[in-house]
Hints:
By secondary structure, the chain is mainly alpha-helical. The protein has helices at 3-13, 18-43, 52-63, 69-118, 122-126, 130-171, 173-182, 184-220, 222-228, 231-261, 264-281, 286-332, 391-398; strands at 351-358, 368-375, 406-411, 414-415. The chain is elongated and about 105 Å long. The two termini are 47 Å apart.
Amino acid sequence: xxxxxxxxxxxxxxxxxxxxxxxxxxxxxxxxxxxxxxxxxxxxxxxxxxxxxxxxxxxxxxxxxxxxxxxxxxxxxxxxxxxxxxxxxxxxxxxxxxxxxxxxxxxxxxxxxxxxxxxxxxxxxxxxxxxxxxxxxxxxxxxxxxxxxxxxxxxxxxxxxxxxxxxxxxxxxxxxxxxxxxxxxxxxxxxxxxxxxxxxxxxxxxxxxxxxxxxxxxxxxxxxxxxxxxxxxxxxxxxxxxxxxxxxxxxxxxxxxxxxxxxxxxxxxxxxxxxxxxxxxxxxxxxxxxxxxxxxxxxxxxxxxxxxxxxxxxxxxxxxxxxxxxxxxxxxxxxxxxxxxxxxxxxxxxxxxxxxxxxxxxxxxxxxxxxxxxxxxxxxxxxxxxxxxxxxxxxxxxxxxxxxxxxxxxxxxxxxxxx
Length: 419
């Protein structure tokens, strides 16, 4: 996953407030590290064997002139309790702030997407799948906003995993290096599983868009379907699309479960082997070995939580990709009009077509060719013709939704491109 790309994406949507969330979480992690160091010293209190962590804590207590065992023990317990208390408060605030940023993203995306769609070229809009557009604006934007939580969960779990790895690394650097090296094959497997999940997620979003299009068309033409008894032509398409979505959901769930929980037993087995090696091969005291085990187990829990959050994010990543492609298409087909130089027309004069021709971008031949006409003000005009004769195109040209390929349209002697 391109963390930098998504960081820039969410940075823009949160209006530059994303780093504040990371700073809050880092402070919480540092508080927990202080608490863990204090509790570790309590567990190994008056132990003849000292490690790097307990040495640092004892030096700190000497600096503040704590003399008696009672004072030292009370200081350690109070410090650990306060640190955990502060960390809990900060983490609760972090969750509230994360929810605030998520709501900010939704507020940023929804109106902006609709605004861009309204400002897009009408001819481009006519070529779009109504179901796909509706799905993106209503459903996928909500998923994109929700994906922010999964993204921040990945970062938070990674930071906590690093904290729980740093502490045992200070206790036994060689052991931690062996564990990290042993984890490399698992990381390769998770990369493969994550790539597969992302591909399936993108396919799922596309299939949902197609299903929405079928449903919207069915509802819009329900009267026709009932009167002509032709619903049996549409229902099989609906069933096929539904089955495809169900199959994709099952595949995504399988790869997510495999990545999230399939590696956990191997991680625990690895920790057990390393602890046995510590006690019976290296001769490390039981207390220190168990403390190391506790830290490594906590680290493994956070590490195992990363794929779970990652899988949830990848499920949403398909929506992000679809949304970005949608916005890129809208931006590439936006109406490039200079609002400052436009004028408000007077509707008291005539509408005049001068040698107007129009051809759709996807068409080979002009729909209208060399049309010249005058529609008098305060008059009613009817356009009559067969299907495909160009009646709707002509009306869309009059209303300014479409722009002539050749020729000029005026209202009250003012060209349309100046309106």
